[in-house]
Amino acid sequence: MGLHIKTIELVALGAAIGGNCIPCLEWHYKKCVELGIPKEEIKEAIEMANKVKQVPIKKINEVADKLLSETSE
Predict the structure, then answer these.
(1) Tell me, what is one Gene Ontology molecular-function annotation carried by this entry (predicted)?
(2) pTM beyond 0.90
(3) Which residues make Cβ contacts (< 8 Å) with residue 37, sequence separation at least 6?
(4) Given 2, 7, 28, 33, which residue has the most CB atoms within 10 angstroms?
């Protein structure tokens, strides 16, 4: 037997956020609620997805800042 359906839906919820897929987020949020996943657990999954999603934003901004500082005017 694989992952529990509740775990799968929480992972899918995070993936939807990571993929910027609004219809996916709405679908998987609804499924989480239907499965009786507590709002606090849903919130934790969303917060974790947002934390993970911030890493590439931080890194790209670091590279952009580095390039700007190396460029002579």
Answers:
(1) peroxiredoxin activity
(2) no
(3) 6, 9, 10
(4) 28
